[in-house]
Structure formats: structure tokens, C-alpha cells
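Protocol step 4 of 5: obtain the predicted structure for the target chain.
Materials: sequence only (see below). No template structures provided, no constraints applied. The aim of this step is simply to have a reference model before the mutagenesis design in step 5. Sequence pasted as it appears in the construct record:
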Amino acid sequence: MPDLTSALRRFAEQALGPCELATSPPGSTDSGPVVRFRSSRGHEYIAKRHTAIGKHAREVHAYRHWAPALGARAARLVAADLQTMTMLITALPGHPADGTGNARDHHRQAGALLRLLHDSEPAQPLPGFQRWLDDRISRWRDLAAPILSAGDERIIEHHLTGLRALGIPDGGPGHFDFQPRNWIVDQNGTLHVIDFEHARIGLPARDFTRLHFRYWASHPRLRDDFFDGYRRQLTADEQQAMINCGAIDALTALARGTQTGDSTLVSHGRATLARLRDEG
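Step 4 output (C-alpha cells):
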């Protein structure tokens, strides 16, 4: 990774002037390597090189158009280069909220921030929703097929049918990987949101799905706290859409987990399928 680190440092210095590594060794995310730099003024920044053009385009767009609605609770985009799929953002202080600190307060803050994101652009019809659904499902269904039973297939199809019944739903900006691993908490307990590579215009209910199946199932008070922050409850239709989106989340977790040997992800997929059976 030394050559890549040098390339990212050159990219950062084009925008910031002389920089030094702030952490060593460099890290990585699901969407590409990241390196933290410190400018001559003592401010820290993160350079990230995406491994896929789609994730780069989505994350840069989100930082330009939607993340500013969160103010200082999200990073600020400093520079981006489409050709090399590289971006530079301000670094946020703190540590991931997953499994640490005051979970109830974290969920309350997260709800407030997600509401800001959802309201950062007016709702609009999603004429491409059904095509997106079919494309996404066909890919993940093929990958997960070897580990799906006939019963698994039936429950997945039942909930996909519910999503198809939406026709052309309204949608807006969403994070779509909104969960505690992408919440950063600073030393004062203030929560920030990171990693917008999955952000796009889509069905807002999807932003609640992973929380519903992976966190709130065993800690229902966290759901109450979250929607206290969000400042409204879901409608019955939104609630059902959130549950139906669990079929997508189960498929992607099972397929990715099997591909990468990630047993935790496979467990999430299995647990989501079990909950889908219970919720009908």
C-alpha cells in the first residue's frame, strides 16, 4: 500500500498543502482504502480511493448535496477526482457507536440526523423503482440461491411482492447503510454520520430496515428513542415497506457473507429471514 498512500498524499497536498500521515498503518473500508492526513495547520482529513465508480459518484454527490443538511455532524467534502475515484473529506473525531456508550442517546441523535437527511430534498416519484428492485434482486438471489431453502424462497418472494405492489412510490435522499457502525461519537457524546457510498434517491423506509432487524428486535426501547429523535412515527404503509425491505437485506447479507466468508453477515441474513417469517 505504500505507493497508494503516496498517491493519496499527493492528492491531499494539492488541496491542503504539505501534509503528514496522521495514523499508521492506513486503513480500509468496504468501498476502498482510506488514509488519514494532518495538514500544516494541525487539521485532519481523510483521503479515500473507491474501488467502484458507482460508489465514488454516490458518495461525492451525497457530500455535495445532502450531507451539508447535517451541518457539522457530517464530514465536509474538500476535493474529488472522478478519474482516480478519489475524494478528500474532513476527518471527524471519535469512535464508532456500535456497542459502546449510551445506546439510547445515540439512537435518539441518529434519528434526528436521519430526519435531516431525508428532508434535505423534496420527495419525488421513483419511476425506476421496480426496475431497480428487479435488477438488485436478480443479482443477489442468484448468489444466495445455493444456501436458500424452498421455505426461504417463499418468504422472500412474499415480501418482494409487497414491494412490487408499491408501483411508483415517492422517495428521497437516503443513506442506506444507516446503522451504529456508521455513527461516530466524539468525547462529548455528540454523534456524527459517516460513509455515504450507498446514498442515493430511494425508498426512505429502507433506511430503517437494518436497525429494525439487527438492533431493535432485541432492544425495542432503542426504536422508541430513535423515533423520538426522528420526530414522527412511521405510517402503517411505511412500517410494512420497512419490513418488506428486509427481504433485500437478507439476500444481500447471505450472498455477501457467503462470498467473503463473513459468518457475522450470514448470521444477520439468517436472523432477518427468521424475523420475516414471524412478522408475516
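Step 4 remarks: Residues 263-279 form the longest helix (17 residues). The two ends are 48 Å apart (CA to CA).
Proceed to step 5.
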